[in-house]
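WARN no homologs supplied; continuing
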Amino acid sequence: MAHETRRRGVTRLVSLAVGAAVFLILLFWHTPSVWAQEASTQNTPSTEMENPDGVFAAPVVIDGKTLFLVRGSSALPAHDRAAAI
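OK structure emitted
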């Protein structure tokens, strides 16, 4: 009786380990395409402009196109904010 209980426990443990391995393989199967993306120098704003009201703004550039400008503050300058976006 004890032998059967131990065997069921081992079988369940092996089953859980195989299930976890399959889950991790499927989880990471698609992520290398995300990891393979390289940082582009085009996405980092190159200039910070002063608006007529005296507030600094930096462009958010994606795929070589300026999408919009973001304003900065003393805590987070415009170029840092644009780079984070």
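Residues 2-29 form the longest helix (28 residues).
OK
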